[in-house]
Amino acid sequence: MMKSRICNLLDIEYPILQGGMARIADASLAAAVSEAGGLGIIAGGTAPVDLIRAEVQKTKELTKKPFGVNIMLLSQHADEIATMVCDEGVKVVTTGAGSPGKYMKMWKEHGITVIPVIPSVAIAKRMVRDGADAVIAEGTEAGGHIGDLTTMVLVPQVVDAVGDKVPVIAAGGIGDGRGIAASMMLGAEAVQVGTRFLTAYECNIHPNYKQKIIGAKDISTIVTGYSTGHPVRCLKNRLTRKFEDLEANNAPLEEIEQLGVGALYKAVIEGDMDGGSIMAGQIAALVNKEQSCKEIIIEMFEQADDLLGSKIGKA
Ligand code: TUI
Does 123 have pLDDT greater than 70? Predict the structure, then answer.
């Protein structure tokens, strides 16, 4: 039997976390994933604290099971959200796009389980030294803001570096049971999945966004923003072509950054598939239907269990 330390640490049935997708992962999605036995996560993104507090309160009404909040550390509201999760009694915090070191003491004092997303071995080691309870090793296959290394090379190296101290969660490019089984073979004890949940019934993105994911091919994503220091993976469209043009012509950084402002809102809320930022991972091509979060999780783990010849749920 293959049992996961993560299920015990987070008090969940299946070792799966739902990615903290900015502007996308709300109370509806997070509660559905938690109700299905995974860990649902509300994304802080760049939203103001009151909006995220309201999502936390809604989630508490929708489920009694554990859920988390993702804090995007580049956000100007990160400090306030970091305090809010303590006030609201949130059990789990994941972080992205930076180092949460300065909040660690406060979170620990409130009994919060802290799980940073990390793109390299050096950053993983630093986070564990700072008190992380687990790390999410996210490969460059992921959607949104990404690092350089693939999941295949990052996960085993992070496992070797910190796996004796904390469990490692694999992320980036995991969309079905094969991805879960492969992650376990690399030494991960859980997975984080974002893109597959985009087409969940409980995911409140614009229908145009869901159709774009369902129509995506293997080479449909592209990374833009290397010149800004914040590379982001999205589905190719008119906006990413504009980014490419500006970056190829060494346009001023402000002009490139300006192009991204409000672009996620355009895609997620307005369904603007030309001018919006359609963040998605490379595994989008594998996502070809709408399902409930429960169906997604059960289907993924049935396939993984078949492949591994053992069950990987709660101990
Ligand atoms: O954070 C993500 N994915 C995201 S965040 C996002 S919203 C956004 N808004 C404005 C600019 C950029 C993004 C959309 N997608 N994934 C987790 C992640 N964290 N990927 C990479 C990292 C990361 C990078 C550097 C984590 C730690 C880190 O540490 C740097 C340091 O020196 O401490």
Answer: yes
- If you measure from the C-alpha of residue 308 to the centroid of ligand 1, how many angstroms do you get, rounded to a whole number? 32
Task: Please state the rounded mean pLDDT for residues 45-71.
Answer: 98
Which atom belonging to ligand 1 lies closest to the Cα atom of 127? 33
- Estimate to the nearest angstrom the gap between the alpha carbon of 299 and the chain centroid: 20
pLDDT at residue 1, rounded to an integer: 46
Q: Is 118 a pocket residue for ligand 1 (Cβ < 6 Å)?
A: yes
- pLDDT, tens digit (0-9, with 9 covering 90-100), for 157-178: 999 999 999 999 999 999 999 9
- Identify the pLDDT of residue 269: 97
For residues 166 and 309, give the distance between their C-alpha atoms in angstroms, rounded to a whole number: 25
100 lines ligand 1 (CB under 6 A): no
Q: What residues contact residue 67 under an 8 Å CB cut-off, 6+ apart?
A: 30, 31, 33, 34, 39, 40, 41, 42, 59, 90, 91, 92
Tokens of 264: 């996620």
What does the pLDDT look like over 185-242, one tens digit per residue? 999 999 999 999 999 999 999 999 999 999 999 999 999 999 888 999 999 999 999 9
pTM beyond 0.90: yes
Given the DSSP bridges, would you call strands 221-224 and 135-138 parallel, antiparallel or unpaired? unpaired
Above 90 in pLDDT, residue 182? yes
Alpha carbons 306 and 173: distance in angstroms, whole number: 20
Nearest CA to ligand 1 atom 17: 96
Which of 24, 145, 243, when mutated, tests ligand 1's pocket best, judged by the most ligand atoms within 8 Å of its CB?
Answer: 145
Does ligand 1 lie within 6 Å of residue 156's CB atom? no
Whether 22 is in the pocket of ligand 1, judged by its Cβ within 6 Å, is: yes
The alpha carbon of 36 and the centre of ligand 1 are apart by a number of angstroms equal to 27
Choosing from 69, 72, 120, 154 the residue with most ligand 1 atoms within 8 A of its CB, the one to mutate for a pocket test is 72
Closest CA to 138 of 178, 173, 94, 177: 173
Q: CB-hemisphere CA count at 13 Å for 83?
A: 6
pLDDT, position 315: 66
